[in-house]
Specification:
- There is one protein chain.
- It is built from twelve helices and 14 strands.
- By secondary structure, it is an alpha+beta fold.
- It has two domains: 45 residues, Uridine Diphospho-n-acetylenolpyruvylglucosamine Reductase, domain 2; 206 residues, Uridine Diphospho-n-acetylenolpyruvylglucosamine Reductase, domain 3 (2-Layer Sandwich).
- It has a five-stranded antiparallel beta sheet with strand order 4-5-10-6-7. Strands 11-12-13-14 form a four-stranded antiparallel beta sheet, sandwiched between helices.
Length: 263
Amino acid sequence: MYAFEYQRVKSVADAAAALARSGGKALAGGQSLVGAMKLRLANPGTVVDLSGIAELKGIKKDGDAIVIGALTTHAEVASSATVKQAIPALAALAEGIGDRQVRNRGTLGGSLANNDPAADYPAAVLALGATVHTNKRKIAADDFFKSMYETALAADEIITAVSFPVPKKAAYVKFPQPASRFALVGVFIAQAGSGARVAVTGAASHVHRATTIESALAKSFTADAAKAVKIPAGQLNNDLHGSAEYRAHLVSVLAARAVAAAG
C-alpha cells in the first residue's frame, strides 16, 4: 500500500470540500477501496473517511418509496423490517452480498460509487428505477451507471441516499462465483405500473438492462417467456469463470427463475 493522507470528516459539506481540495477518494465501508489500495491498484493521495457523517445513515419509508442512506450497511438493509415489508427482494439481495464481515462493513453508497461489474446493488437500483441522491443533484438509475467502475458522479460528488420505488413484484437471482460471492451473472426483475424492468449484473462490463426480456415480459409475465429469449453473447464477459456464451445462457435462465420467484 502506498502512503496517503487520511482525513475523517463529520459533514457532507466538509467531505465535498476535502475531496475538491485534495482530489482524493471517499472512503465508505472500505471493502473495495482498501483492498485495491493494498494491491496497489489504487493510489489516492488522500482518503476522506465518511463514516462519521450520521446524516448518511438510516432507512425510512417516504410515500411510495424506500429511502436508504448511503452509509447504511448491507447487513442493516438485509435486517430492516421496513425493507423486508416493502421490497423483500432488496433485503434478500443484501443478505447475499459477500460474507458476514463484508455485510457489516460494506455500504450501499460505496457499492454504487465503485460500480463493480459484478456487484449486486447496481442491479437492484437499475431494475427498480431508483434515484441516486447526491450532495449536488438527483440522478436517475438509467443515467448513473456509465461503464466499468465508472458512474455519473463528479470527483467531489458524494452519494447521500438512494430512493427505491416500491414495485408490485420483484426478485433477484444470481449465480455466484464461489470464492468471491460476486455474481457470475445476476438478474433483478421488477414489475411496476410502467411494466417490467430487468437488470443484469456480472455478465458485461457494467450493469445493464435486458430490454429483450423486458419486451417479452410485457407480453407475458411468465418464466417461460423470459427463458425463451436468446441473449447474444457478443458484448458479454469471457473469462476463466465462464464464457460469454455461458453467461448469455445464464441470463435467460436466471431471468426465468426471478420471474418465478417474484410470483
